[in-house]
Amino acid sequence: MALLEYKCPCCSGAIEYNSTVGKMKCPYCDTEFEMETLKEMDEAISEDTVNDDLSWDTKAGSEWSDSEASGVVSYECKSCGAKITFDATTTASSCPFCDNPIVMTAGFVGGLKPDFVIPFKLDKKAAKEGFLKHLTGKKLLPRVFKDQNHIDEIKGVYVPFWIFDSDADANMVFKGTKVHRYTSGSYDVTETSYYRVLRSGNMSFANIPVDGSEKMDDALMDSVEPFDVSQGVEFQSAYLAGYCADKYDVSAEESIERANKRIRNSTEAAFKATASEFTTLTTEANNIKLSNGKTRYALLPLWILNTTWNGEKYVFAMNGQTGKFVGNLPCDKGLYKKYLFSTAGIATVIIAAGWYALKLLGIL
Q: Is residue 306 a contact partner of residue 96, using CB atoms and an 8 Å limit?
């Protein structure tokens, strides 16, 4: 025999029928509920938690023509497995992801031609300046990161992205509270009121970018955004001159979950913003249905510096369109110890000087 348990919407405690008052009552917070009210709440939550319909049309890109394919060459890095595309005039380079020297020997085969490309607006000089600015004020940074020869290794790379567009019809249920604090006599009173908050509406999402490269850290790629997709132009192999392009190794279908997560988070944040009068607001249920979803394949411009220090890999990236620079920096432990000891020495001198001054004044 199964026991049916109701959770109190106020404190999440198990509520039970109280024969004295003829209602369901929570023994923890003493909140009383009419049976009909609980039935309506169960029905509403059940309706709102119908499975999301987050399906997409993932047809993106197009087939390469023979003339287009002859204008580019591709190479699979033997070190890290990156599939890199160059214009046909390039004869030698190095992998932008692991810096392994490579020589192009194969014509371009396989994969899709991008729907569009955002050309580089910022050159290598701007990328080097952006990197140096990123290093400014970092006293504990290892010397190798400031070496000019090292900075010259910054490479311009077109990174593959899947661009998602969709309309969304959403319904969300929140549990809200309003907290009122006041003093009554010698008591400090906290009064909490609980609410069931419903929100529904339509939203449109345009140009949600999800990188299609397994080698690029997703957090790094999210941080280097945004890109102005309106500046995208039809892809031509001529845009690869002087740069290289990473070929996607994460499909549009495999990228859907990241796009859906962004839609869920953005929808929840937008709906929560309409209920700012509540002290707290937690999500109880949601239902999102997408329509007119479509996907496009694009190459977006990045300046990348890949390096290894003390056995750890560090990747820095600059948005080749906006100049936004991102990347974590290491700390030289040797410099840190010197800085720590010098700081401790200065602190000791200051303390000693203060003690001596107080002694002269007769305070000690």
A: yes
Alpha carbons within 13 angstroms on the beta-carbon side of residue 125 total 0
What is the predicted pLDDT for the residue at 37? 63
Structure pTM? 0.67
User: pLDDT of 269-311, one tens digit each?
Assistant: 999 999 999 999 999 888 888 888 889 999 999 998 877 767 7
- Is 42 contained in some domain? no
User: In angstroms, rounded to a whole number, what is the distance separating the alpha carbons of residues 145 and 152?
Assistant: 11
Q: Are residues 313 and 341 in the same domain?
A: no
Report how far residue 237's alpha carbon sits from residue 303's, in angstroms, rounded to the nearest whole number.
19
Q: How many CB atoms lie within 10 A of CB 322?
A: 15
Nearest alpha-carbon partner for 297 in 246, 260, 226 = 246
Q: Are residues 361 and 261 in the same domain?
A: no
Does residue 2 sit within a domain? no
Q: Measure Cα distances from 31 to 4, 39, 98, 279 in Å.
A: 19, 16, 62, 20
